[in-house]
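Next comes a concrete protein, fold included:
___
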Amino acid sequence: MWHRKPAVAGSFYPSDPGKLASEIDAYLKKAEGAKVEGELFGVIAPHAGYVYSGPVAAYSYALLRKLDIQVAVVLAPCHRARFDGASIIPSGLYSTPLGDVTVDETIGAELVEKPRFKFIRQAHEEEHSLEVQVPFLQRVLGDFTLVPIVVGTTDLELCRSLAAGLSDVLSGEKRRFIIVLSTDLSHYHSYDEAKRIDAVFIETLKRYNTTDLSGALSTDRAQACGEGPVLAGLELAKAMGASQIEVLKYANSGDTAGGRGQVVGYLAAAITK
């Protein structure tokens, strides 16, 4: 059992609970018109500092506000290491300034026994891409358990293996769960070049073909730092009957809080049945 404490509070988002809640709520209010057709299975959300990507992430999280979701399964990339598989925290607490979230021990115990899943503490200790999703989940879900997974690979076959393990476990889950796939898009291009590269990612994503998407990413025609989580998440969604991608919002840091000389792209999208 491990208590994962905040690593990027005060830098990526406010460390003061009141300020953090108010900032998230303001983003959610501006995104409250977000909607999808079909049954929501999962969302894609960015993971930069809130001032940059929070306005986009809110479009994904606004969809969850009126749903009775009891479990959040978050797949995020590892920015500090590469390993063949995924690191899952199987039990414990995951904390933010908004409080403690219980890690789902039932799902964790099953997943850690699946091929390619293990607990690598170092993969989680300072990883922002998962942490920044949790305060949004706390504001829209309230009481829920968390399945925190850091993906250490971008290999498509390994991602398919991860998806198979997740599908085996989640297919027997009686509680309603949501999948969150954490990724930013292109990094440090000019504003117009970023929009061009990110358009390739978005159009390929909408075709729902992981082979095509992996090919576009491996040749840099498209870019996403959360390639592994997205590939594994799409394979999981497909295995569990979710077959539609709906783009909710795209912007880059030049639209939100930065200059346009070098920008980072952000996407909010929904995966539906």
